[in-house]
Amino acid sequence: MSIEGSKTYIAGRLSGEDWKRLKEKLAIGGEQEAWASAYEDYFLQRLKLRYLDPIKVLDHQGAWEGEGFSIVSIQCALIEFLSATRRGEKYRFLKRGETLGPHEYSSSSALFQDFLSSVPPFSSTFDDASAKEFYQSIRCALLHEARTRNGWRLWVSGTRPIDLIQKIVYRKALQAAISLYLEDYGTAILSDPALQAAFIRKFDDLAD
Description:
With 208 residues, the chain is mainly alpha-helical. It has helices spanning 16-23, 32-61, 67-87, 108-118, 128-145, 171-188, 193-207, and strands at residues 2-4, 7-11, 14-15, 90-91, 104-105, 153-155, 162-163, 168-170. Strands 1-2-3 form a 3-stranded antiparallel beta sheet. Strands 6-8-7 form a 3-stranded mixed beta sheet. Strands 4-5 form a two-stranded parallel sheet. Strand 7 and strand 8 (168-170) form a beta hairpin. The longest helix is centred in the first third of the chain and has 30 residues, at 32-61.
C-alpha cells in the first residue's frame, strides 16, 4: 500500500475509504456490475501500476543484459499476490508462541506451489514437483539472493513458461500465462461466491 497524509492508497488514487464505499455495493453472488468495477478499478489497476507496467518498462527498454532477473522477480511477487487474493489470505509474521488466525499464512511455499500446480493455465505446465523446484530455485533464489540456483537460467522467449529438462524459465511465456489467468479470473469473479468472499477479505486487509 502507499500512504499519503492520512489516506492509504491501494489502487492508484483509490484509497481504503474508497474501497469501503464500494464494498457496500458488493454482495456475494450479487450484482455483476459492481463486481466488474471491483475487478477493474481495484484489482487490475493495482496490478497494472505496481507490477504489469513496471514489467513492460523493463521489457521494452531492456538490452538483454540481465533485466530478466528483475522481471522474473516481479513475476514471482505477483504470483504470490494472485494466490493470496484467490484464497483471501494475508501474510503474518509469527512471533514465538503465536499461532495463525483464520485466512492467514506465514510461509509462502504452499501458497505459491499449490497455485502453480492446481490453477489454470499454470497447472498445464507445473505439477507438484516442478512447482516446488520453481519456488526453491527461482522464486526464493531471486528474491533472497538476486540469482537462480541449481543450474536454472532465465531466457526471453519460449513456448511454455518453463523447460524442466533444460532448466530454463521463459519469462515472456510466463507473462502470457499470467495475462491469461487475469482474464479468466476477471470472468470468474463476477459469479463465483468463493472467489468473491476471498476478494473481499483480501481488500479489507489492504484497506486496513
